[in-house]
Design brief:
The complex is a heterodimer of chains A (544) and B (166). By secondary structure, chain A is α+β, with helices and mostly antiparallel strands. Chain A is 40% helix and 24% strand. In chain A, strands 7-6-5-11-10-9-8 form a 7-stranded antiparallel beta sheet, sandwiched between helices. Chain B is of the alpha+beta class and 166 residues long. The relative contact order of chain B is 0.16. Classes of the chains: A alpha+beta (544), B alpha+beta (166). At the A-B interface, helix 6, strand 18, strand 19, helix 16 and strand 21 of A face strand 1 and strand 5 of B.
Chain lengths: 544, 166
């Protein structure tokens, strides 16, 4: 295979890294090989798997070629299943550069290109695994630098370009003109400057008026280790520790080791079975909590080590993070359609929130999380900074929804709980012991509480440039959706909603989850909101 | 809610073909038969089945009859569509209803589908997709001729608008 002009290979250093990586993929096979081949055959099997792992890496290096020309990014790969992926350069929305510890050791990085396609699977995504770190950096700059190309059709037809995309002075928000008020969020600025020396960049991303495109990188947020206190408030810790224990247990069993053979586990087990039930339950719960908390803290620290959110002069946002695996996601601001502030119940109770971008292309290779779980004020500040607003749109005063919405929340939460109780009662499947019975009965008041909270959280608002909607109780989400990111409307009424005069108004976008709804709003109010968010689109279909 | 100044949605201009009633009836009939016939046969051949199974089947049969009689004509009164120079507007559903608007500039593909039953009745379903994962717009039960004219119109209009529709 000769190498045509313009086509580049992956970095040869990947040959050193690839076998190790492939081995992870071949791990199930390796386990099978270890188990299947008893006695003298075993080394042979294992060697076979190792050679296959190494071979796949070599093959990938030999067959993969890539090229970036004026129009498109192209990647050739595969020997048996030949693949040719080609993405027009103006479809590139995100560039994700990731390097795991092994790759970092060899100065390599994996580059992934996110396009606007929905439900991008791993198969479809365009990835270079791996190139040198400097090449990844060069490609990132090349792929996202809009100034090098002129595509008048592309940006003109998709509606008014966001303020960020044009070369006009950035951040045209008039100091006092926005709908949500003019006072700079003094509190959040103070909170921000507490943990970063570079104070000027903290100030909500609102550039000093016409600060003629300073070529500097502006920092919008960086990690503060006081945020670690929010780590245990994400359930991931407990879940991850549980999963880890589960797999370890299974692996041990696979290799014929019973956990009760280990002395420490043995003593623990004996102690627990020897003590009363309630004591065992308390001990286990406490153990899970402690280990889960530790796990959550470690995971948080690993994932968000040296986290920084920055805005670059080419109008891209960049998120750098990670201790062992270093990850760096760039997304084009022109394709940013909004921001979501998420508050899972526990995190909300602890005064925390996280912040996620609603951006084209961020659906595929992991959502573009802009901010880890952090103080709520920080989440709103980052939301404002990223959207180039003076005040956080996600804090805009929300209009409440009518009482009919409360009725619907209650019915929807309580009916399933009652139905469950009824079925249990009728079918005589009465639960074995009193704790279960109590739990089943407590389900009803719990569902009422959730319904009340869901209603309390419902709300929507209209700012100068965003549609803001909030809902949810266990996971409360406030989305601020850029008006120009809305590409259609869906208005739904169930028979009950119709009788109550309410509707669910959904704005559809090309990004994120694709649809953001205003739940159980009065129909006329919902139509007014939709009409003002996309002037002219709905108007011909409205009766005054 | 009765405030005269509050906006309401007007109905899209065009109805779907009246043959769609037949189509929906046949679909509902088929669906219910596929469920009820095997169930009835099963009940007939099983001895000593508890009494409530037969009662349940009777209730289901009544529901099925009501659904088959009411749903198609109700749907026909609801289902409407309209394509202006700027947008596609649809209204659909029966118990639960839905209105959808997609601007021409954001339309990505326009497809036509004709199942065997629809071919028999001379009907087509036009599907308009946008870049959103929220799902496409469907205009079901259109007269085949009307459908192909609609597709032509939509294709012509969307080709005239540049951009990647996101």
């Amino acid at each position: 295979m000769s190498q045509p002009a313009g086509w580049a290979r992956l970095d040869p250093r990947m040959l050193a890294v690839a076998p190790g990586q492939e081995l992870v993929r071949f791990l199930p096979l390796l386990v099978v090989a270890l188990l299947a081949g008893r006695g003298n055959e075993q080394p042979f099997w294992v060697l076979g798997v190792l050679v296959m792992a190494a071979g796949t890496g070599v093959l990938r290096w030999l067959t993969t070629r890539y090229r970036v020309d004026a129009e498109r990014v192209e990647v050739h790969s595969g020997l048996v299943f030949r693949q040719h992926r080609s993405v027009p350069r103006d479809r590139v929305r995100t560039v994700d550069v990731t390097a795991n510890p092994l790759q970092r050791l060899f100065g390599l990085a994996v580059l992934r290109v996110g396009t606007g396609r929905q439900q991008e699977s791993r198969q479809q995504e365009l990835a270079l695994n791996a190139v040198s770190a400097s090449e990844a950096e060069r490609l990132r700059g090349l792929l996202l630098d809009r100034s090098q190309r002129v595509d008048p059709a592309g940006s003109a037809a998709t509606g008014p370009t966001p303020p960020a995309g044009s070369t006009a002075p950035a951040g045209p928000t008039p100091p006092a003109g926005s709908a949500t008020g003019s006072a700079p969020p003094a509190g959040s600025v103070a909170a921000g400057s507490a943990e970063a020396g570079s104070a000027p960049t903290i100030a909500t991303g609102l550039a000093p008026p016409a600060a003629t495109r300073a070529p500097a990188v502006r920092e919008l947020a960086r990690i503060s280790w006081t945020w670690l206190r929010f780590a245990p408030l994400t359930v991931f810790g407990v879940v991850a520790v549980g999963a880890l224990l589960g797999t370890t247990w299974q692996l041990l069993e696979q290799f014929g080791v019973s956990p009760t053979d280990v002395d420490l586990a043995r003593t623990l087990f004996d102690r627990l079975t020897g003590s009363p039930v309630w004591l065992a339950a308390v001990t286990i719960t406490a153990g899970v909590l402690v280990v889960g908390t530790l796990g959550a803290v470690v995971l948080y620290a690993e994932a968000w080590w040296r986290y920084r959110l920055t805005r670059h002069p080419d109008n891209t946002l960049q998120i750098d993070r990670g201790l062992l695996t270093r990850r760096s996601v760039s997304l084009e601001e022109r394709k940013l359609r909004g921001v979501t502030v998420a508050e899972p119940l526990l995190l909300r109770a602890g005064g925390g929130a996280s912040c996620t971008a609603v951006a084209t292309g961020s659906g595929g290779s992991g959502r573009a999380q802009l901010l880890p779980p952090a103080p709520r004020a920080q989440a709103h500040r980052v939301a404002a900074a990223v959207l180039r607003e003076a005040t956080p749109p996600t804090l805009a005063p929300l209009r409440r929804h009518p009482r009919a919405a409360l009725r619907r929340r209650l019915i929807r939460a309580v009916l399933p709980a009652l139905a469950l109780l009824a079925v249990l009662g009728i079918a005589d499947l009465w639960l074995p012991s009193w704790p279960w019975q109590l739990a089943a009965i407590l389900l009803v008041p719990a569902s009422v509480l959730v319904a009340l909270d869901r209603y309390r959280n419902l709300g929507h608002a209209e700012t100068a440039r965003q549609l803001v909607a909030r809902e949810g109780s266990v996971l409360r989400q406030t989305v601020a959706l850029q008006h120009q990111g809305i590409i259609g409307w869906k208005i739904e009424q169930s028979i009950f909603q119709r009788r109550a005069g309410i509707a669910t108004v959904t704005a559809t976008t090309a990004t994120g989850s694709g649809a953001y709804r205003v739940l159980d709003v009065e129909l006329p109010e919902g139509l007014l909101v939709a009409d003002s968010a996309t002037p002219g689109l709905l108007t011909p279909f409205l009766l005054p | 809610m009765t405030d005269p100044s509050s906006p309401r949605l007007r109905q899209p201009a065009h109805r779907v073909s009246s043959r769609a009633i037949l189509w929906w009836t046949a679909q509902a009939l088929g669906g219910w038969l596929a469920l009820l016939v095997p169930a009835t046969v099963g009940v007939l051949f099983v001895e000593d089945e508890p009494g409530w199974i037969a009662t349940g089947l009777e209730v289901l049969a009544v529901l099925a009859l009501a659904h088959i009689l009411v749903m198609p004509s109700w749907r026909f009164r609801v289902h409407r569509w309209e394509a202006t120079a700027d947008a596609v507007y649809t209204q659909s559903g029966w118990l639960n209803q839905e209105w959808r608007v997609a601007p021409m500039s954001r339309i990505q593909t326009v497809d036509t589908e004709r199942g065997p039953l629809q071919q028999l009745l001379g009907l087509s379903t036009v599907t308009v997709t946008t870049a959103s994962a929220a799902g496409p717009l469907h205009v079901a039960g259109l007269d085949a001729g009307v459908a192909s004219r609609l597709v032509e119109q939509l294709t012509a209009t969307t080709q005239a608008t540049a951009g990647d529709a996101t």
